[in-house]
Design a protein that fits this description.
Blueprint: H1 2-33, H2 50-54, H3 60-69, E1 72-76, E2 82-86, H4 89-96, H5 107-116, H6 127-137, H7 143-170, E3 175-179, H8 180-197, H9 210-219, H10 225-233, H11 244-271, H12 279-289, H13 297-328, H14 330-341, H15 350-356, H16 358-370, E4 376-380, E5 385-388, E6 400-403, E7 408-412, H17 413-416, H18 420-423, H19 433-440, H20 462-477, E8 480-483, E9 488-492, E10 496-500, E11 509-514
Parallel strand pairs: 2-7
Antiparallel strand pairs: 1-2, 3-11, 4-7, 5-6, 8-11, 9-10
Helix pairs in contact: 7-8, 7-20, 8-13, 9-11, 11-13, 13-16, 13-20, 16-19
Main location: membrane
Organism: Lentinula guzmanii
Pathway: Secondary metabolite biosynthesis; terpenoid biosynthesis
Length: 515
């Protein structure tokens, strides 16, 4: 009887001991291999630098560390695991370009995407599997397809503007304080629903909305201590994503997205609209063309979840930060209003949005430069690999860095995009005119903006996102002016969001006035 109880316990202990020894051996081996790479001393024996990073202004320590230690540094994560932070241009070009499939997403990041979205394009790894999924999605997000979707962008923008006008009118005034982040997220959801799937989520009605609330709640509560533990530990213990209230929230969000995606798919099959240019129509055509190899419904729903989520988080953040920066600069706001007002009586075309509104383009680029939605681009070395450097690590003459298998590395986008050697002494100042000056002088670096990444795994929705944001800003500026009466700070959820300084969740109340 005792043996039946002891054997399973002993087996569990042996397995646990094996993984502990393996984990410690990996840490010691990695630390030895990277001993010549400089970096800060761990501020905590248990948490390394995770506590410091979590409770500081997003990206601030990356800036300080890279100024002190150079373009390649290492720091310590939870339980001693080593992280490389890389801003060297040659290394970034190699990692994101020709060697991207040797540097997959870390296991924890993949576990997050699988838990929240399923096995879609953000989760998949390997050249063949990724290219197959990218080929299925890319045509619906191409420039040709986006061109045909521009009227939808303006229509959704007009719905948001109408709701804001109603809020102002109901207050019997010419202005009202409006919480922008809430509306930016709902705008993003309604736009992707209609443009990608011919489906109206109806998030802009102003009423409570289960999908919007679920997605917002998943990442908009990062001030909780449970979020710190999950963020610090999921790099080495991905299973933590299924534990506790946060794990339940992840499952709820995935289920909500899955239910809506399944309904959209059933409705689309009944409607049979395979002649359009949106994502759903292209999926229907693929189903008809490859009738002997039906698309797996789990994969299809995962792609739909991924598209919705990818369109929600970054776009809502870009909209919020753009309106924030305009609210701080009345002169710039007026100049942009004049540009978009003189663009014609109607709505600017796709060509106008992409080429003929230089100040608007410069402002959006500057927002992406100083407020990148994704702060860090994370990867993991699939095998021990040698990476080229543009300059040797201080104290060595090596122009290559050997990265051990399993090492997590991150590219701090904010450091790259505020490098004074590239952007000048005012690199940390919001000054859109720099883009007009650079264009006039013919200056263009190989890597101007990393907000959408680059290379084979760059964001395929970049054109879609930029056009919808520009359409919204044009629509709003023609009807409203903006002012910000609060001190706003950035904080890191899944993306970098704005909030009133010292508060918990995202918040950007602006004074919105009729013009």
């Amino acid at each position: 009887m005792i043996s039946h109880i002891l054997y399973p316990i002993l087996l569990c202990l042996v397995v646990a001991l094996y993984f502990c020894v393996k984990f410690v051996a990996h840490i010691l081996t990695t630390r030895h291999a990277l001993r010549h790479v400089p970096g800060p001393r761990p501020s905590s024996l248990i948490w390394g630098e995770e506590w410091l990073l979590y409770h500081s202004t997003p990206g601030a320590h990356y800036v300080r560390w890279h100024r002190q230690f150079g373009k390649i540094l290492r720091f310590t994560g939870a339980f001693g695991h080593q992280v490389l932070s890389i801003t060297d241009p040659s290394a970034i070009k190699y990692i994101l370009g020709e060697a991207i499939f040797d540097f997959p997403k870390p296991k924890g990041v993949r576990a997050w995407f699988k838990a929240t979205l399923g096995e879609g394009i953000l989760w998949v790894e390997g050249r063949e599997a990724h290219e197959r999924q990218r080929r299925a999605l890319a045509p619906a997000l191409s420039q040709t397809s986006v061109r045909s979707l521009v009227p939808i962008f303006y229509d959704t923008s007009a719905k948001l503007a109408s709701q804001w006008m109603k809020i102002i009118d109901d207050g019997h005034s010419d202005e009202a304080e409006i919480e922008v982040t809430k509306w930016a997220g709902r705008f993003a959801l309604d736009t992707v629903g209609r443009a990608a799937f011919s489906y109206d989520f109806d998030c802009l009605s102003g009423r409570p909305h289960a999908l919007a609330d679920s997605m917002d709640g998943l990442t908009n509560n990062e001030n909780k201590i449970s979020s710190f533990y999950m963020r610090a530990l999921f790099w080495i213990f991905p299973s933590i994503l299924s534990i506790g209230d946060k794990g339940e929230m992840i499952r709820k969000s995935k289920m909500e997205l899955g239910n809506i995606a399944s309904k959209m798919w059933r409705d689309a099959k009944v409607a049979g609209d395979a002649n359009g240019k949106n994502l759903m129509s292209m999926i229907l055509r693929a189903e008809a063309k490859f009738s002997t190899h039906k698309m797996d419904e789990n994969e299809l729903v995962a792609q739909m979840r991924t598209t919705i989520s990818a369109a929600f988080e970054p776009v809502s953040a870009i909209v919020a930060w753009t309106l924030f920066e305009l609210a701080l600069n009345v002169r710039l706001q007026n100049e942009l209003r004049e540009e978009v007002s003189t663009a014609g009586l109607g709505d600017p075309s796709y060509d106008d949005l992409t080429s003929n509104l230089p100040l608007l383009d410069a402002i959006i680029r500057e927002v992406l430069r100083l407020h990148p939605p994704i702060l860090e681009n994370h990867h993991e070395a699939a095998e021990t690999i040698s990476v080229p450097l543009s300059e040797p690590i201080p104290g060595t003459s090596d122009t290559y860095l050997v990265i051990p298998k399993g090492t997590i590395l991150e590219i701090p986008v904010n450091v790259v995009q505020t490098d004074p050697d590239v952007w000048g002494s005012d690199a940390e100042i919001f000054r859109p005119e720099r883009w007009l000056e650079r264009k006039k002088r013919g200056i263009r670096s190989d890597r101007e903006i990393l907000a959408f990444s680059e290379g084979p795994r760059s964001c395929i929705g970049k054109t879609f996102a930029l056009c919808e944001v520009k359409a919204l800003i044009i629509t709003l500026l023609r009807q409203f002016s903006f002012a910000c009466p609060y001190e706003i700070e950035p904080f890191q959820s899944f993306v970098i969001r704005p909030r009133i300084k010292g508060q918990g969740p995202s918040s950007l109340p602006l004074i919105v006035r009729k013009v």
